[in-house]
Amino acid sequence: MNSQARIGLVTSVFTFVAGIWLFLAPFIMEYQRVGEDWIDATRNDMWTGSVLMAVSALAFFLFVAYALRDAAVRADERRREEEDS
Amino acid sequence: MIKYLFGMVGALGGMLAGAWLMLAPFALAYQLSGAAWADPTYTDFWSGLAILVVSLIGLLMYVLGLVGELRRRGIIEPREEPEAQQAQAADMPAVGGAQAGSAADVEQILLPLVNAMLEDMQDQRRRREGNGGPQGAAPNQQLDPERRVQQ
Q1: Could you tell me the pTM of the whole model?
Q2: With helix as H, strand as E and coil as C, how does A16-71 read?
């Protein structure tokens, strides 16, 4: 895996963490009291945070899965070449 | 190769989410325009900005990775490496040498013509000297390369 892909994966992890932050932010920043009806800002943060977490997690796992598949294909090709030679 | 596309789509989604977070306080009207920013506005705006910037970096990285992969597979023409450029620069004297070789060929072709011209000039000089006039010596000195060498 090249360095660009690694940095890309780190940014995906960051956006996932940002999604968690958006879930917690209304309560940490105390503009949403626990037990009370959610205000518009809280609802927006929850929805945006959940979408962000889902998208970044999906991108991360699909990227890793396809990177592993590519690595497996390359390893198979190398093994076949060694057997042929 | 398709893995980069997944990464790009994810990063693009992150960018859109970041942009939405920056606009949401005004779009959903929980921040009145002109009023001092409330806590939710600060949180959403700065979180959105950070997500937007990081996702943009991620998108650029995935695009660069995809371009690198396409180059590696030969789909995009590989970029000329600095070493290759140096090697090309080192080859330039060889090209210059070829040019020098062609110049030597031209010289070989022109040599009989130059010799004929020199003989003709010497004949003219002898004829003038035979006529006994040293008047024409000065112009001949300029023209006769042999005499110039002797001087």
Answers
A1: 0.66
A2: HHHHHHHHHHHHHCCCCCCCCCCCHHHHHHHHHHHHHHHHHHHHHHHHHHHHHHHH
Unique residue bearing structure tokens 């000089």: B125
Q: What is the pLDDT of residue B133?
A: 53
Calculate the CA A45 to chain-centre distance: 17
Please compute the mean of the pLDDT values over residues B73-98 and round it to a whole number: 67
**Contact status, residue B40 vs residue B22, Cβ threshold 8 Å:** no
Give the model's pLDDT for residue A16: 96
CB contact under 8 A, A63 and B47: no
Contacts of A45 (CB under 8 A, 6+ apart): A22, A23, A25, A26, B40, B43, B44
CA B99 to CA A13: how far, in whole Å?
Answer: 60
Helices B2-27 and B39-72 cross at an angle (nearest 10°) of 160
Residue extents of the structural domains in chain B: 2-72
- d(C-alpha A79, C-alpha B103), whole Å: 57
Rounded CA Rg of chain B: 40
Closest partner CB to A4 (pick from B13, B47, B65): B65
| Domain definitions of chain A by residue range | 3-84
Å from B64 to nearest chain A CA? 7
pLDDT digits (tens, 9 = 90+) for B4-13: 999 999 999 9
